[in-house]
Design goal:
homodimer, 264 residues, alpha/beta, 8-stranded parallel β-sheet, globular
């Protein structure tokens, strides 16, 4: 599993506060914690700052790159901001995310190729949410065609089918799980990724639902997740999941996590 | 999910001790605990007593039926023993299990029909373990043909594909998960069931692996499990799993379990 660490997201109030006050030590500690906990990428999101997004994101990128070698995932709805910050990034980055109908798509895809970036493409409909498996897979198909036609390799593409809250639709997870299964079967070489927490929104014991959703999604082929790797029980579940679904030869990853005290 | 409570199994030393000393109160408390915890059937196993199996099983059946209305699942490798104890059973029972090549199969299937019993049929090969998905599904196909030809309804049949230890084969769970998926797809109306604990044998943090295996199996269609419903975290995981995989309309079962304090 490719783990995209989701902690440094300014929609979390304490992160926004640390960014606004330029509390470099705090943001750097959030980055280091995720790095030692197994993050493959560190996601950075400053979209909440509106016109100041680029300025705040620049500061975040610089702060994080001072303390870790883990590559960054630039999470922004604004292609103009992504274009501007890409040149600051030292390691081959990830872009989060491309959607259908995005402005400046050609320009952005050109930069993706230039920087050798990986790309998350979200199954977001242009009008309203794509809630059914069919809608999600149809959007995935169009995104894959568009992005690979621009020269991005399928193996650098991570489709996020998006998961909506079970509290408004008890089959919301089901639709996403089937979409993951279909995408992994129909588009060989392309990856899938997903955030976990939206499914449990509005329901009790959210962490239990999030962990459970992760396992069901891995069973359908999910090979990346946007999660908090410092969440002990979630990380333990992910390592158990890799062994259960048959992606951990000789139980090496599971035993290694056990020896590091990460399973309890 | 149909839950078959697995606690009263004399391969557990403290259960064997309670049966040998005829500690009625202890066995009855084990039965009541499982009944209030959500067991749909209470499994009884006395095979370890060899020649005394029938005698011990009779005592167990009487003890348990004194304190609960939950139907029983008679777990024995010996058809002659099953035949003899069936007449003691008050509620429509379950038989655990029928395998290919079983002696007295015709007699046993006749009794199954007579008592309206449900049947667990295990994908056990006649020579050695059936470790691959193909072997498991092939045995399932033969069992289903044999048992339904005798007049058992597909809906009364629970195929157990069996799961072997991941410590000797890191793809053991994968083979069982794929077998569950194929059986549920290829034989509509037939159920699947499985014990969880063998997969984790020889590995650390076994409960974590067992819970994770349960979710992956539910995602593939598993609709019954042979488990300990008094295991809090396992039961919570099962309820979360029902919601995640789309079998809990309006989240009713999940919310109900939360209100009863069963999710934490």
């Amino acid at each position: 599993m490719l783990i995209i660490g989701d902690r440094i997201d300014a929609t979390r109030k304490y992160i926004a506060q640390a960014v606004l006050t330029e509390n470099r030590g705090f943001i750097q500690s959030e980055a280091k914690d995720q790095a030692v906990s197994g993050a493959d990428y560190i996601n950075l999101n400053a979209a909440i700052f509106g016109d100041d997004e680029e300025k705040r994101l620049r500061w975040m990128i610089e702060a994080v790159q001072e303390v870790t070698e883990i590559p960054l995932c630039i999470d922004s709805p604004n292609p103009a901001v992504i274009e501007k910050v890409l040149q600051l990034i030292r390691k081959r980055p990830m872009i989060n995310s491309i959607i259908l109908g995005l402005e400046r798509m050609d320009k952005l895809l050109g930069l993706v190729i230039e920087y050798g970036a990986k790309v998350i493409a979200s199954c977001q409909a242009q009008h309203g949410a794509a809630e059914t498996t069919e809608e999600k897979v149809d959007i995935a198909r169009r995104l894959i065609r568009l992005i690979t036609a621009a020269g991005v390799l399928p193996g650098d593409l991570y489709i996020d089918p998006l998961a909506y809250s079970l509290s408004t639709n008890a089959r919301a997870a089901r639709a996403t799980l089937d979409a993951i299964g279909e995408i992994m079967t129909r588009f060989p070489g392309v990856h899938t990724t997903c955030g976990l927490s939206t499914v449990s929104y509005g329901l009790p014991v959210r962490n239990l639902l999030n962990r459970t959703f992760l396992i069901a999604a891995m069973e359908r082929g999910l090979d990346s997740a946007i999660i908090d790797p410092t969440d002990h029980l979630l990380y333990a579940t992910l390592k158990a999941g890799e062994l259960i679904v048959g992606r951990d030869d000789c139980s090496k990853g599971y035993i290694h996590a056990f020896r590091k005290g990460r399973l309890e």
